[in-house]
TrEMBL record, chain A:
Coiled coil: none annotated. It is a multi-pass membrane protein. One of its GO terms (cellular component) is plasma membrane. Its main location: membrane. It is found in: Cell membrane; Membrane. This is NADH dehydrogenase subunit H. It comes from Actinomycetospora cinnamomea. The lineage of its organism: Bacteria, Bacillati, Actinomycetota, Actinomycetes, Pseudonocardiales. InterPro entries: NADH_UbQ_OxRdtase_su1/FPO (IPR001694). The chain crosses the membrane at residues 6-27, 77-94, 114-135, 142-162, 174-197, 229-248, 254-272, 284-308. Keywords: Membrane, NAD, Transmembrane, Transmembrane helix. GO terms for molecular function: NADH dehydrogenase activity. The keyword NAD applies.
From TrEMBL, chain B:
It comes from the Bacteria. It is found in: Cell membrane. This is NADH-quinone oxidoreductase subunit J. It is an enzyme of class 7 (translocase). Its EC number is 7.1.1.-. It catalyses: a quinone + NADH + 5 H(+)(in) = a quinol + NAD(+) + 4 H(+)(out). Belongs to the complex I subunit 6 family.
Automatic annotation (TrEMBL), chain C:
GO terms for cellular component: plasma membrane. GO terms for molecular function: NADH dehydrogenase (quinone) (non-electrogenic) activity; quinone binding. Its EC number is 7.1.1.-. The chain crosses the membrane at residues 33-53, 60-83. NDH-1 is composed of 14 different subunits. Subunits NuoA, H, J, K, L, M, N constitute the membrane sector of the complex. The keyword Nuclease does not apply. It is found in: Cell membrane; Membrane. The keyword Membrane applies. This is NADH-quinone oxidoreductase subunit K. Belongs to the complex I subunit 4L family.
Amino acid sequence: MPEVVTVGAAWAVPAALLLGLVAVVAASADAVMVARRDGVDVRTGAIAPLAETARLLRQPRRVTPAADAPLWRVGRGGLLVAALLMVAVVPWGSWVPADLPVGVVWFNAVDVTVWAFVWLAGWGPNAAFSLVGAYRFLAQALAYELPLMFALTAPALAAGSLRVADVAAAQQGLWFAVWMPVAFAVYCLGVLGFAVWGPLAPPTGGDIAGGVLAEVSGPDRLLLLAGRYALLAAGAVFAVPLFLGGGAGPLLPGWLWVLVKALVLVVALVAVGRRLPALRPDRFLELGWMVLLPAVLLQVLVVALVVVL
Amino acid sequence: MTVLADVVFWVLAVIAVVAGAWVFRFDSMARATYALAVSFVAVGLALLLVDLDYVGMVVVLMMVMEMAVMAVYMIMFMGMNPALMPMSMVHDNRKAVVAAVAGFVLLGGGALLVPWPVRRGVPAPDGTAALGEALMGSKMLVMMAVSPVMVATIVAGIAIAAPRGRYDRLGDDLDRGRADDPQPGGVGR
Amino acid sequence: MTLQALLVVAAALFGVGLYGALSQQVVVMVMMGLELMLNGVVLAAAAMWWFLAPDPTGQVLILVVVAAMTVEMAMGFAVATLLHRSRSADMTDMATDLSR
């Protein structure tokens, strides 16, 4: 058992700050790419997340008639909470906020709660386009969730443990991302899925007037947008111990390596996500079950054979 | 620690039961469904208190997923919408209450009155690993029985619910090259 | 936290679920009642496991109950879909042919 120190609950705060840093970098990277595409000064792009935050904080809240206020509130706030719960089990080098023996299953359970939160965010305002977006999300969640589950299984299988620190420590020789590329790719697609980002952003698509985001404004919109970037960042942070060797690396301390790897991955996710076309939920459903699921099952079979032999 | 565990358990217990009762009190279909989800999450977290880490997480995972899908069916099939038109959606209310109270008294009384045996054995240090070894070893027959049941469920569910069979899709002689679907799939079959 | 306490809470969940399963008219709501009853069964099984015989058999039993829940849901949704499609029925009282 590799030694990781379970630090006190107060250390959840630095973990949350690091997650926030990754999320802000993701948002900035996205804004910079938009600025470069539009030929605008890149510096305005880099500070765009701050400017947008300031703008949304001053914007009044939109209220819709006969809204289901409590459920709407749960949906809006839930994404950020889910992202924080995900990174609670991630070891930053040698210290970890919560050292669960079943950390990988914990991550999976939390990413399933995103189903509920996005759907509630779309259901709450009692508006047609919001609800269309919510249903779109459930349809594509049904497609990405099972492949994602098996993609999470592969590293745990190779490490022989569901504890995240054990999975990270099992990659001393070779990163799991290198010898299980299918699982890593499917995992990244799953991250884009539960962050409602890139090719899997149709639940918030422009063709349905913003979908889940159609009726939110002001601080509520800020919460939802921040929640999406936080989920993207949490997915990238969790990928580090799972596929990218954890905190192992020369010179720098472990926690800094985790941060660096997570930043590189999140910028890569943003860049690749921007370049891929949107996947229509109805088409993606068949893609998920007919292509991704068999592919990732074969990957798990290969991993199992390697472990046994 | 034990006091803390007690407090956490009773909070979770109250949440589980109250949310469970709200399922049948809410007018809104979404609220009823997610109240049930809350009840399941509370029970799943309570399982963590008795060292059932893996099983507790699986209960949370499965049930949140199921309730997200359940909400869709609730809204699709509740032909009469009690949120739009307040009405009583119950029948035989008195009999149901009597049966429920009787069931609770019987089971709860049994729980309090039965002389329970003392604990036999100690839990394995790593319960999840012990569970995995049991499933792949001495209890393998259980999993081997569950898996065909699951496959049968998938096949039967689709056979019952699918509106169009293969003759609708591929023609009477099954000789149509591309299936005639109202909604084309993603892999171009 | 004692065996009795857990079992009483499980009995309460079972009782509430029983009420729902007996009193509700809509098929999907009946299923929610059944789910709640099984929720109580899961908690009771966990309590028995921890306080009486903490070997893996109890955990296997809980997994079987969870599997039973998924089967119940899948078949329930399929039958509800079929009822709704064939006769626009969503109430249990509309599907009593077999009882006559």
